[in-house]
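so my prof wants the structure for this chain in the tokens format not the other one, which i didnt know existed until like an hour ago. anyway here's the sequence
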Amino acid sequence: MHVTYHVGEHDGGWAYHIEEVWSDRFPDHRTALEAARVAASRQGTSEEDVLVSYQNAEGNWTTELAGNGERVDAEVMDVGPPW
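here's what i got, hopefully its the right format
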């Protein structure tokens, strides 16, 4: 599985998102980018099964069983202002 975290302007600040699901808002681009990198670094392989809860694009909460050695590749795409 591949996951891309996109960083961009959102709701009067900066945030990161996967598809249409956005993170909390951050006051500046640098903070949002760092938060996206931290979130991406938490992806990986687990030998243990764990329950994972998340909010989907429609705003509904979903709980799934994850783990069992499933590999998740994560990257961060920065769509912030030109530097």
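also thought this was worth mentioning. The radius of gyration is 14 Å.
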